[in-house]
Design goal:
The chain is an alpha+beta fold and 761 residues long. It is 39% helix and 28% strand. The protein contains 19 helices and 32 strands. Strand 17 and strand 18 form a beta hairpin.
């Protein structure tokens, strides 16, 4: 009775321990899933307005700007007054009048990160800079705005007003492009230096480049409709370039920061690209049809690679220079991205100083926050009147609008991950500098204007590629080895099983180290031998079997059943040695003396030292023990009565192994393959150290790749906590988690189905 009670108690205890252990395992898995998901969840959130603020102005502002902390905004008025206003209470704590205007008024203005270039109504230009400095007194921080002016320059001898102006510069050179009321397109170049005696020297060169555009206008130029002309003339005054029977109207200008390209937009929807690299001899490099409507606004994104084009119909498009061998310059302008339309003429475009985002404003009062890479319109804002000035805060966390009702509107925004969308993560994206949309992973760059490329497809591809090649090597070797060990090898020789299992205890970092520093150079050096080696091994095995058959029966009877495998070892070693010994011979016979050149010229394949072949061998070596052990156990546990019955009916040992043992043990073998698959998918160090770790999409055996797990290991230490890259890496981990969960679930369902099927045998 006592023993019975003890057994019942032990059974119950075991039941509860197993149940609680399983429940705890499921709970831990769910906790892991929840933790990873919570780190990924912010990527699913879009931009939002945190706070909206409205303040009155003392007139219609022609330009506005804001400090880094969004505490002080300045407003520039047409008469030259500048007001510095506190955004917290609307208090004006400083006023400044631009003395260089000399009684004239501002006709046009270009604001480049608080460096303003003013075009006046008497044909002069004036450059001013606004800086925000901070001081601390008794622990209190005070922001002090400062305004510095340069001497005004008369750019139009006729003293006509300047309708459009664009300017860029650095410490040594400043270039300004202006369009006057008289229709002259003038390029002003200012060079700064020092004389032989150390005195400051300024040299200015003025060049009229109007003719570069006038010569390109044909007599068949289309005239805009009355409605289109009215919209453009109302909100974007245009200027006529005369000289032909028909007139062309310039509606916008844009100059890049390198001061090499000037873009001119016209009322006919064309963009003229004027090359000004040589300021003495500028020339028209290209003319493209950008829109059916007037080009009302032009602006460069951060980095000056992408040109944003706004038109009279509200369209917003991003154009980029793309390489073209047919073009005389080797490049041509091509539309890469299309954003949501305003359905009204676009008045202003303001780029972000931090990323590829930008703000657009239209004549109907709509304000859009866009991102070029992801092609998303993240926010749709509205004002009740026409915007006259727009600015985007330095940290890209605020949008400010001055409208025609003398009102200032501020939106504080939260937009932590603007570059993330389903397309940027899993689709082809047209990145700057690329000739077409592609799958690219490149999370960092050498400059602040770098465009992050966070597509996970190359990493998923690399994971599949590495797993596939390793499984191709590991599965047949492991299963056939398990079949031979369980069915043919003598019991006294089965000590080989624990030796193979010891292979699984080798750390991945050791295998990766050996693969990267020893195996990869060896394969590169002995590649022709590696190609010939399988054939020589097969021939040596055939010779060994033939010689084994020639041995007298009495001689073979001295050895235990299954010991013939030992007879093969010298032949296999000899085949390997012969392959390496005749490496140069094989290279001459098979690859015309140079296998790299042969692969490149004949197959179009490039050979990299650290490639998928090396990873396949190394990761296959790591996976083989797992598949072998589980498969061997499954085959050894096949009931002996089935094997005996098969042999009794006249089947050979090989027929019994193939037609009885393998089907019966197939559920276990399938589980073994799935375990090996899971190990290969999640492998990190081998892939990290044995490949070039390049995120490319190519099935070529002889180049590298980057897997999801290896990418997490490489990128995570450098990812800012809570940043976009940080959360995308967690998304990669979530994909691995979900993938392995789904595969294991399906594998278990298949295994149970196979088990029920073969249990009836």
């Amino acid at each position: 009775m006592r023993s019975l009670k003890r057994r019942k108690f032990a059974d119950r205890a075991a039941h509860w321990v197993i149940t609680l252990g399983g429940a705890a395992t499921v709970f831990v898995i769910l906790v892991f899933f929840l933790f990873i998901f919570l780190e990924v969840y912010p990527l699913l959130k879009g931009a939002k307005v945190v706070k909206e603020n409205a303040l009155p102005l003392h007139g219609k502002a022609v330009s506005i700007g804001v400090d880094e902390r969004q505490e002080i905004v300045y407003s520039v008025y047409k008469d030259g007054d500048i007001e510095f206003i506190s955004l917290s209470n609307g208090h004006i704590f400083k006023r400044h009048h631009i003395t260089g205007l000399n009684g004239s008024a501002i006709a046009s203005i270009d604001n480049d990160n608080n460096h303003l270039v003013l075009g006046t109504n008497n044909g002069s230009i004036l450059k001013i800079s606004i800086d925000f400095s901070e001081s601390f007194d008794k622990g209190e921080r005070t922001v002090l705005p400062e305004v510095s002016e340069e001497e005004s320059v008369l750019i139009d001898d006729e003293k006509k007003g300047i309708d459009y102006i664009t300017s860029r510069g650095d410490d040594t050179t400043k270039v300004t492009g202006v369009l006057t009321e008289s229709g002259r397109l003038i390029l002003l170049t200012s060079e700064f230096g020092k004389t032989f005696f150390g005195q400051e020297e300024k040299r200015e060169k003025k060049k009229d480049i109007t003719d570069l555009i006038v010569r390109q206008v044909t007599l068949k130029q289309s005239i805009p409709s009355q409605e289109e002309a009215k919209n453009v003339e109302t909100y974007n005054p245009t200027t006529n370039l005369t000289g032909l029977e028909n007139e062309v109207k310039i509606t916008s200008l844009a100059l890049d920061h390198c001061m090499k390209s000037l873009y001119v937009g016209t009322s006919s929807g064309e963009i003229f690209h004027i090359n000004i690299k040589d300021k003495e001899t500028p020339f028209l490099q290209e003319k493209v049809k950008a829109s059916d409507k007037a080009v009302t606004a032009l602006c460069f994104l951060l980095g000056d690679v992408s040109l944003i084009v706004g038109d009279g119909g509200g369209g917003v498009n991003v154009w980029m220079q793309v390489r073209d061998e047919k073009s005389s310059s080797g490049w041509f302008l091509k539309k890469a991205h299309t954003l949501k339309s305003h359905n009204a003429p676009v008045l202003a475009i303001v780029p972000s100083r931090r990323d590829k985002g930008f703000v657009t404003a239209a004549s109907n009062g709509t304000i859009h926050l866009n991102h070029a890479t992801s092609e998303q319109t993240l926010l749709n804002l509205e004002t009740k009147s026409i915007p006259t000035a727009v600015t985007f805060s330095p940290k890209a966390d605020g949008i400010l609008i001055a409208d025609s009702n003398s009102k200032l509107v501020q939106w504080n925004i939260s937009n932590p991950h603007p570059e993330i969308s389903h397309k940027t993560l899993f689709g082809r994206v047209w990145y700057e500098g690329y000739e077409k949309p592609e799958f690219v992973w490149q999370s960092s760059g050498g400059t602040d204007d770098f465009e992050p490329k966070l597509c996970l497809v190359p990493l998923i591809f690399g994971t599949i590629k590495g797993t596939l090649y390793s499984m191709i090597i590991a599965v047949p070797i492991a299963i056939l080895a398990a079949l031979y060990t369980s069915q043919f090898l003598h019991k006294t020789l089965k000590t080989i099983k624990p030796l193979i299992e010891i292979m699984a205890a080798l750390p991945s970092v050791i295998l990766g180290f050996l693969a990267g520093l020893w195996l990869a150079p060896l394969v590169e050096r002995e590649f022709p031998a590696m190609v010939a080696m399988p054939f020589l091994i097969i021939i040596s095995i055939a010779i060994a079997f033939y010689l084994w058959k020639l041995l007298p029966t009495q001689q073979k009877g001295k050895y235990r059943y299954g010991a013939e495998a030992l007879f093969l070892i010298p032949f296999i070693i000899g085949a390997v040695y012969a392959s390496i010994l005749f490496n140069s011979v094989f290279e001459s016979l098979l690859f015309s003396g140079d296998y790299r050149e042969w692969l490149s010229n004949i197959l179009g394949l490039k050979y990299d030292q650290r490639n998928a072949v090396v990873v396949g061998f190394t990761m296959g070596f790591a996976v083989i023990p797992l598949i072998f052990t589980v498969s061997e156990d499954a085959m050894s546990n096949v009931p002996h009565n089935l094997v005996s019955a098969s042999l009794a009916l006249g089947a050979t040992s090989w027929q019994t192994a193939i037609r009885v043992v393998l089907p019966t043990a197939s559920p276990g073998i399938f589980s073994a393959v799935m375990i090996g698959f899971g190990r290969a998918v999640g492998e990190t160090m081998i892939v990290l150290m044995a490949t070039g770790n390049t995120p490319i999409m190519d099935w070529n055996l002889f180049n590298g790749f980057r897997a999801l797990a290896a990418n997490i290991a490489v990128e995570m230490p450098e990812a800012p906590d809570g940043g976009t890259l940080y959360r995308v890496l967690f998304l990669a981990a979530l994909l691995l988690f979900i993938t392995t969960f789904i595969i294991n679930t399906l594998a278990e369902m298949i295994r149970q189905k196979m088990r029920r099927r073969y249990s009836k045998l």
